[in-house]
Each structure stands twice: as C-alpha cells, then as structure tokens.
Automatic annotation (TrEMBL):
Protein name: Protein FAR1-RELATED SEQUENCE
Subcellular location(s) of the protein: Nucleus
Native organism taxonomy: Eukaryota, Viridiplantae, Streptophyta, Embryophyta, Tracheophyta
Keyword Zinc-finger on entry: yes
Classification via Pfam families: SWIM (PF04434)
One term of GO molecular function: zinc ion binding
The keyword Nucleus belongs to this UniProt entry's keyword annotation: yes
Main function: Putative transcription activator involved in regulating light control of development.
Organism: Chenopodium quinoa
Main location group: nucleus
Keywords (A to Z) from UniProt: Metal-binding, Nucleus, Zinc, Zinc-finger
Length: 294
C-alpha cells in the first residue's frame, strides 16, 4: 500500500489502517468488541512484562537497556532491530559540520512474505543516511522508523556504535512503551469497559473520591499546596516499597522542584480510603454509544 510509504514521517505508534464500507451501527458494535478485546490483551501483556524477561541476543548495552525498561511486546520489536544489525555495515562516516556527523549505512532490503507472514531479507542492498548531532544527541535516519513507530532503528543503533556511545540517549526511550508506566485510561469508565470486573479500578475511584476534599482545600493557598505535596511524596515512597520497589522513589511534585526543602512543611497526610462509598460519582458524561443504548 502507498499510505505507509507516504506517511512514514508521521508518528502512528505502529498502527495500520484499512478501508471498509460498513454502516454506523455495525461499526459501533465492532468497535465495542474490538476495544474490549484490546483492553484484555493489554492486561495480559502487562502481566507478562512484569513477570518475564527475554534472553539477550547481542552484547549491545542498548538491547539490555530496552529490555529492562520497555514492555515485552515493544522489546520484541527492538530486539528484531538488534538481530538485523548483522546485515548493517557503516561504509563511511564524516563530519559535515561541527558536531554533526553523517553515517552511510549499508543494509539489506526486506520484503514481507504472505506465505510465512513475516519480513525476509532479499539479495538487494540499500544505503541509508544517518545524521548524528553530538551536541543535542539527536539521530535522524532516512527509514523514519522512530518517527513513525517510536522504535529506534538498526541504522541509528549502528551509528551510535560507530560514535562509541554505549547506551541509548534518554530521549529515545518513550514513556508510552515503558513497563513501569501507569495506564490511566484503563481506570476510566466507558461503555465497552465494565468497571465491576476490575478491582483496581474500584480502588482507584474510591481513592479519588476520598482525596477530592483535600484537593479542594489545598488549592486555597500555596502553603496548603506545599503541605499536601510533601505529604504525598512521603506517602508515595512508602507505597512504592510495598507495591513496585523498582520504580523511582518519588515522582510527586515535580513542578515544585525549584522550592527548597526548608520551605516545605513536613506533614503526614492520612487519606480515608474506606468511607463506605457505594455509588462512586464520575465526572464523565454519557458517551454516544450509551445514549444510543449500545
């Protein structure tokens, strides 16, 4: 199809499109079923990412970094690029201006096999031009794999190896693919997602309702805001020791990083997590599917 080739400079997060002529009701029913199946698949994938680590295929530090940070499904894509590095050869490297390097990477051409349902290399070669800015640590490749799918391509990895850079720059580790990323959309009530099936969502809603009075009070002045942020930072560090010890110790109050510790009043915030709440309120109005009775 011509669409992926023409739109590869845009970020699509690995999504593909198809064109079909369907009615509105049929589309709504298919959308509900597909989205419910997608949520369940994401839940299973998150469980696999938390329990299993794949074996490294190369000695590159970049592969190990992505294995420790990315979800299992996305690391498979990164590992595919690392495996294909065996076909990549850097033919020429030159500094076209101060701090800007040009790498010419020779790589095999891959085509998709309908029989084997995967890409296979053929006896054709192509030269890819990769630019590396040493000042900003930015990479740009002609294949546009990172710009389109958010996965660092093998040509950029080869360029980093030529520059003797052992690890990947942090800007190329996207938060959307991280295994320790909180997926807030799974806690939102929608027509295709039954919250009664998820205990995590019920606990999340109960906690949000219990915290709402505190959030209304702390917005009155800066002193109350600092007290709440400091209390949440202490509470977050205690919770992460029990729930997810591998996460950073604190991520609350990043906007107040310029305030000194002496300006913060250290308090303990106790949240009433069990208030006998039954029908939890929601700020979301009915969606179109609910109004149509779907």
């Amino acid at each position: 199809m011509w669409i992926p080739t023409a739109m590869k400079h845009m970020f699509w997060a690995g999504m593909k499109t198809t064109q079909r002529n369907t009615g509105l009701c049929d589309f709504a029913e298919r959308y509900v079923r597909a989205t419910e199946h997608r949520i369940e698949a994401e839940r299973l994938a998150d469980g696999n990412s938390a329990m299993y680590l794949r074996t490294l295929l190369t000695d590159f530090k970049i592969e190990e970094t992505f294995r420790n940070v990315y979800t299992d499904a996305k690391f498979v894509e990164v590992q595919r690029e690392c495996k294909r590095l065996m076909y990549c050869n850097c033919n020429n490297t030159k500094e076209i201006e101060e701090g800007l390097y040009e790498h010419l990477i020779k790589d095999r051409v891959y085509i998709y096999s309908d029989i084997e349902k995967k890409e296979k290399p053929i006896d054709r070669w192509r030269i890819y031009r990769v630019l590396y800015n040493a000042k900003t640590e930015e990479l740009e490749c002609e294949c546009r794999l990172f710009e389109c799918n958010g996965i660092l391509c093998r040509h950029c990895i080869n360029a980093l190896k030529s520059q003797q850079i052992p690890d990947v720059p942090k800007k190329y580790i996207l938060d959307r693919w991280r295994r320790d990323n909180y997926r807030k959309h799974t806690r939102v009530k929608v027509a295709y997602h039954d919250l009664s099936k998820t205990e995590e969502v019920l606990r999340y809603d109960k906690m949000m309702v219990a915290f709402e009075p505190i959030s209304c009070l702390e917005c009155e002045n800066d002193e109350a805001l600092i007290m709440v942020i400091d209390g949440l930072q202490q509470l977050e560090m205690q919770i992460k020791k029990v729930v997810k010890p591998a996460l950073p110790m604190s991520s609350v109050g990043g906007q107040l990083a310029d305030c000194g510790e002496d300006d913060h009043a250290k308090v303990n915030v106790e949240l009433p997590v069990d208030g006998g709440i039954k029908d939890l309120p929601t700020n979301r109005g009915p969606c179109v599917l609910e109004l149509q009775g779907l």
